[in-house]
């Protein structure tokens, strides 16, 4: 998922001179990287010298191309830019450091870059030029990445619910008079937790639908839309995490042992730490609604 999203960004925001190379033979490559500005890019004509050390390169061990974020180091008197930059995987040194609780298969290793790359393999982060891809790409990197995070969260939580239901229908806890699914306490927690998650999912879908419609109308970079999307995705993640944690506890040693529910538990705890669904989003949402209660 992360690799496909990153490929779409560079496919939409870079000129033909780069995308013809990136998508040689008509095959969309696997693209990975961390786009936080942890590098420095020194301009030299139509090239940049990029140096930096990065973490969380989601899928970087599987990638054909690898990217990194950087602030440019322009001549004195000129404004630095935050740019995303792309280079072949061969230009990157993998550093390991992915001994983690969840999302182990992502191979999101640390990596370092010290390489020259052409300017046409980069784009400006906050207001990129859209060369192709349709109005949806006017929503920008952050919002389009939130879409992927929302889809991942929905998938993991739904899988956890399915697995827990299967266990609850046949598993009897020690000294309990019936299977878990017949316990009134489980039934109440299950109903309320799933309801809260599905309510958050509804808001998420509504927020993204509103943003997509705005993009089609030519106003896709509305900060109000972005704030609502980020908060809806944060709420979805937190409600999903709460559901998965509750189901894990109810399913006892069936969830403790290696299996799909245990993996959902680990992956949700890992994914909930992502900066895109972090605690900054509620503060931005509060700032918006306290200053303009009608903003939606």
Query: What is the global morphology?
Result: globular
Taken in chain order, the helices and strands follow as HHEEEEEEEHHHHHH
CATH topological fold name of the largest domain: Butyryl-CoA Dehydrogenase, subunit A, domain 3
Number of domains: 2
Number of H/I helices: 8
The total strand number stands at 7
How many strands, what sense, and barrel or not for the largest sheet? Answer: 7 strands, mixed
Residue windows where pLDDT falls under 50 for at least 5 positions:
none
**Would you identify the CATH H-level superfamily of the largest domain?**
Butyryl-CoA Dehydrogenase, subunit A, domain 3
Highest CATH level, the class of the largest domain? Mainly Alpha
Explained architecture:
This protein has 296 residues and is α+β, with helices and mostly antiparallel strands. The chain folds into two domains: 2-124, Butyryl-CoA Dehydrogenase, subunit A, domain 2, CATH 2.40.110; 135-291, Butyryl-CoA Dehydrogenase, subunit A, domain 3, CATH 1.20.140.10. 46% of the residues lie in helices and 18% in strands. It contains eight helices and seven strands; from the N terminus they run ααβββββββαααααα. The protein has helices spanning 2-13, 16-22, 140-168, 184-216, 223-250, 253-256, 260-271, 280-291, and strands spanning 31-44, 47-54, 65-72, 82-88, 92-96, 110-118, 122-124. Strands 5-6-2-1-3-4-7 form a seven-stranded mixed sheet. A hairpin with a 2-residue loop joins β1 and β2. It starts with a helix and ends in a 5-residue tail after the last helix.
